[in-house]
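TA notes. Do not distribute before section.
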Amino acid sequence: MVETIRDYREEILKFKCELGNERVALFRGQSNCGWEIKSSLERHGIEVIACEKYYRIIDRYKPLINPLIENRYERKSTSRGYPFDFKEYDQGSWELPEMEYLAYLRHHGFPTPLVDFSNSCFIALFFACEDFNQGDKKDGKTFLYSPPQFTIGGNNVPGLRKIGRYVEAGKRHFAQQSQYLIPTEYDSEWKFITFRKVFESKSNEHVLREITISKDVKAKLMKELSEMNINRYTMYLNEDALIKSLADEWALENALLGKT
C-alpha cells in the first residue's frame, strides 16, 4: 500500500522496468479500491450493445446539442441507417467513427463505452485521492495498463481499442492527458462489451497492475500533487473547478493540521 509520493514513484518504476522501455503504459485512478473498472455505459446498466444501435442513439441527440456549442456535430443517420458497416469485420477492426463526439459526450456525463486513462501516473493518483475530504472515504487505487505486444483478432475475441490523445475533445481532454480504451467484440457485428470481459477471455496478454492508496494519506498526497500544479482546477478547467480547488486548498490546510 502506497503512503508517499516516493513509494508511488517506486511502484511505477518497477512496473515500467517490468514492461521494458518500448512498452506503452497508461494509468487510471479511482477513489474507491473496491470499484472495478467500468465504462460509464456499463455504470448506466448496459453491458452489451451493438455498435450500430448505440451510434444511432447518440446521433439523434445532435440537434439538441448543436445550438449550445461552437463545434457542431453533423447528423449521420439516414432512412437506411447509420452510414458505417458494423457487420464488416475489417472496417470495424481498423477504426470506429466519430471519436471526437464520443469523447465530448464522455466528458459531459453521457454514457459511452470509453474508459478514461491518462499518460500521467500523477494525474491518475489525483483521481484516486480527490475524495480526501469526505468522511466516508475509502482506500483508493491506481491501475497501470499496457496493451499486448502482439494482438490476436477474429470472431468472439474481446479486445480493447486504444484511442490516443490526438482527438479534438476539448480542454479537459488535453489537461488530463487523456487516452481512452474501448472494449469491443465481433460476433456477426461489432459490439461494445464490458471491460471485465476482455480480461476474462485471456485471448491477448493485456497487462493490468494495481496500486492501493491508503485513505489516511490522501490529503498528504493531494497536497504534494497541488505543489506539482495538479489540482481540481487544472484537471477540469472551469469556474466550478476553480472554486472547488480553493475549497480543497482550505480543506488540505485543516487536514494536515489535524483539524478535520
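Switch to the second chain here.
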Amino acid sequence: LGHPQGSELGNWALGHWTEEGYDLFENFPDLASALWAAEERKLVPHKFPNHHIPIPEHYLAEDTTVAVETRAIMAWMDKNPFVLGANLQGGEKLVSYPFDTARPLSETAPRPPDYEDDHLELQETPDHAIFRWLAISYASAHLTMTETFRGGCHTQDVTDTMGIVQGAKWHPRAGSMNDFSYLHTNCLELSLYLGCDKFPHESELQQEWENNKESLLTFMEQVHRGIKGLVRDQQGEPIANATIVVGGINHNVKTGRVQGRVVAPAPPPAHLPPRSPLSPAAAGGDYWRILNPGEYRVWARAEGYNPSVKTCSVFYDIGATQCDFVLARSNWKRIREIMAMNGNRPVRRLPPGRPLT
C-alpha cells in the first residue's frame, strides 16, 4: 500500500521518493510536536489527549501536500484496529523505534553551555521499555543483526551493540509513520532495516530470507504478549471507545467495533439468557494492549459509566492475559444536564422539607 511508485528504477539516489516527490515514511502529520506543545501548556490529559490524537485540520485540507498513498494508509489504519506493525526497509541492519521526532528543548529548561537555537533533546515514549522489548525480539533472532563488532553498515555502529536504536537518536525526523501509528491509533509500529544492501541481487535473496525469517516470526509472536479483553455493560453489551489505562504508562488505548469479525463473547450475567456466539454484541468492545511481563493496575473508563479497575499479570510465556471489565452506568449525564440548567454552577442545597421550585 505504501510502496513508492517506480521503485523498480531505484538506486541509492532514486526510488526513495514517489514519482510525485513524496517520502511516504515522513509524509504523516506531526502529532508528537502537537502533544509536546500541549504538555508545555499543561493541557494533557484533561484538555488534550495522550492517545488517539486527532489529525490537525490544516493537514486534511485539499491543498495540503499529502501523497495519495499516505491518505490511503491513514484511512486503512483508522478502519482496522492494528496492534503491532512494522515497515520493512533496506540499506541498514537495525531496528528503529519511536519517537522518530526529536523534541525541542523546553523554554523553561536550563540551557547547556553549547546550546544553540535548534537544540533538540531525545524524548522517550511512555512505552519505551515495550518498544525496546519488541525491537530486541527482532534483532536478537536475526542471524547477523547483533554482530556489531564489525561496525555499522556504512558508518560506526549507532546501536550500542544491540542492533536497535531510537529513531530520534539516529535519524531525527518529524511526521514519521511510526510516530503517527503510536499517537493516533492503538498500534505499536517499528522500522525493520533488513540488511546493508538496499537492493540485494537475486542471488542473495535466499540468504536474506534466512537472515530475517526467524526474526519476522518472533516479532509477529509478540502481538500475543500483554493483556486483552472485552469491556461490557451490566447487560452484557459491548462498550465502544472505552479507554484502557495502564498504571505507570501515560499512554492509553481504546476499545472499538470491528467490522467483519466475531469475538468470542464473555459469559453474560447470570440473570440474562445465553447469547449466541454470532450475535452482533460479540463483535465490539474488545481491546489488546502489548505489555512487558509484570503486574499492572488497569482501569477501564467510558463516557456515562463508572470506571472499573483490576490487577492484571503478564507472564513471560507467549499468550496475552484475558482481562475483562464490566462497567456500571453512572448518573453523570443527568448531573451535567442539571448543571447546564443551572448555568454550570454548583446546585444550591435546599433545607429539609423545603419544596423544589
